[in-house]
Amino acid sequence: QVQLVESGGGLVQPGGSLRLSCVGSGFIFSSYIMRWYRQAPGKERELVARITSAGGTTIYLDSMKGRFTISRDNAKNTMYLQMNSLKPEDTGVYYCNAAQTGGSRSYWGQGTQVTVSS
Description:
Blueprint: E1 3-7, E2 10-12, E3 18-25, E4 32-39, E5 45-51, E6 57-59, E7 68-73, E8 78-83, E9 92-100, E10 106-108, E11 112-116
């Protein structure tokens, strides 16, 4: 059974940090492109960052460049999103996605809530 489980969200003050984790099981984690998405209140889900199976990374949102870092540990079947200098506009539900490299399979986690507020 395929599972993606996010954790690490919570309530943090502006300027604080969080590290999100996404643990995969039931599929060959190292062969999948991993992505983080965010869905802000009342908005569409948007792509935040991507990391390839080889470790190549991309941060897609300009507002997050220099503050967010995506990484993965294939030995632990885990992807991370380190979020620093958090702002209220970073608030939302963060989802991880696994997409098969060269294939069509795609899986989603259940999401983890991040709230940045004083």
